[in-house]
Amino acid sequence: MTLDLEAIRSQFPALNETDEGVARVYMDNPAGTQVPQRVVDAMSHCMLGASANMGGYFRTSLAVGDIVADAQHAMADFLNAPSADEIIFGQNMTSLTFHISRSIGRFLDAGDEIVLSRMDHDANVGPWVLLARDFGLTIRWLPFDTRTYEFDLGELENLLNDRTRLVCVCAASNLTGTVNDVRAICRMARDAGAWTYIDAVQSAPHMVNDVQEFDCDFLVCSPYKFFGPHQGVLWGRREVLESLQPYKLRPAPDSIPWSFSPGTASHEGMAGTAAAVDYFAWVGETMAGGEGDRRQKVRAGMAAIADYEQSLAQYLVRGLQSLPGITIHGITADEAMSRRGPTVAFTHERHAPDDIARALAAANIFAWSGHNYAVEVVKSLGIYESGGAVRVGPVHYNTIGEVDRLFETLEAILS
Length: 415
Hints:
Aspartate Aminotransferase, domain 2; Aspartate Aminotransferase, domain 1; four-stranded antiparallel beta sheet; globular; 2 domains; alpha/beta
C-alpha cells in the first residue's frame, strides 16, 4: 500500500509552520503528535455549540450527549471493543491508571503479586509500585534482553504463579520502539489466573490495537499520541470492571463507564478524539480501499500507515547507523525490524543527549532527550546517569526528506 503523503500532510496545518523561514521537522511524535484540521474543527464545534453538562433536557446538553456517545463508539471502533460502555475517558493515561489502580487494589490481598516490566514507561510502573506499598503486595520484575531489546517470555513463565494477580506491560516501548507479543503475554497471564493491564500509548499511532485479539483485561492509550487532543482512554473488560468497586462521588452513576469517570470529562477532548479516529477511517477509505463501517476503515488505514512507517523506521535506523559514534538502543537486525516501531533512541560516544537535542532544536528539528519517563529502561541499559538518550520518532506524516535533513544536521553537529 502507498500513502499519498501530499494529501496526508494537507490535513495537518502545523506541518506548514516555519520559524524565520525554516520549516519545522517534527521528530518529537512519541511525546505527542500534531493534529489534523478535523480535530480542531470538532473541538471548536463542541465548545461553541455544545458547551454544557450532560443529562439536561435543553439543546446544548442533548448535543453534548451525542458528542460523548460518538466518542465512546469511536474508541470502541478504534480498539475493537465489544461495547462502547467499556470505554472510559480521563485526563490522561497516567491519571486513569492511578485511579483504576485503587479499585484493583481493593480486589487484592497482602502477599498477592504484580508483574511489572523493565521496558515500560513509568506510568505503567509507578502506580503499581505505590499500590504494592500501600496494600502489602509483591512486585515481580520482567527484564528485557539488553542485546536484543526484547522479552524472553520464558522468564515471564518463571515469574507467574498462583499468587500472580496482575501483569502490566507495554504493547510498544516509548524508548526502544520494541513491539511486544501482547497476545502471547495475555494468554500466559490468563492461564495463570491473572489480569493484564496493557499500556498501548506508543502502539496506538502505529498499529492495530485489538482488545479482543489481545484478550487483555485492561488497555490504556492517549489520543494526543495518535493525532488527537490531550486526553486519556481506558478500556476494561465489562465483567472485570463490574467486579471492581469504583472510587466515585455519591451522586455519580453506579453503572459503567460513568462509575469510573471522576468528575466532568473534557467533552471537547472527546469530540477531538472521535475526529482523530475518523481521520484513520479517512486514510483507510481513501488510500487503502477500506470499505464497510468505521471499524473496518480504521483497520485498513492503520495497515497502510504501518506499512509506510516500517520502511521509514528501517531508513532511519540504517541512516543513524552510518553516522560515526552513534549507538542505537533498540532493534536494528533486518530479520527483527517487523518487531519495532519508528521510535528510535540513540546515544553518541562524545556528545551528551541534551546537547544533541539542543543543537537539533536550533536547526528547527524537534526531538527529545533524557529518560523520557522510561526510567527502568534507561537504568537497564546503563545510560541513566549519563543523561539517557536522544529520541526521535517519525510518524506517517513525516517524509524521507525530513529524515535526510535529520541526518545532515546530525552529521554537522557530531563533527
